[in-house]
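Our platform keeps sequence and structure together, in a single record for each protein. Because each token names a local backbone shape, the row as a whole describes the fold. One such record is reproduced below, unchanged from the form in which we store it:
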Amino acid sequence: HHAMVAEFSLDKPVTLRGTLTKLLWINPHGWIYLDVKGADGQVENWAIETGGPGRMQKSGLRTTDFRIGRELIVGGFAAKDGSRHAAGMIVTFPDREALSDRPASFALGR
């Protein structure tokens, strides 16, 4: 287990909007995998580390929120080494923004 700042840079905030390709709901950290269109138009696969499942559930998230193919927006911090890894801090479900029965954004338990 590691401190977030050991691998990720607080000086490299990222906002990633893309399509969910995979979810690992595991301890000690979950993982969200997104296909994100890069500045050059090419699709990049990003791996986003989250908090553990218990912490995500406490913020109101469920595994059923993460349907493969669903569009997500994830805010967090990029890896220090420049790879396509990030520490996720918040997830937003754009298709929920107009709904009032559940929030559109949730903390990712970091």
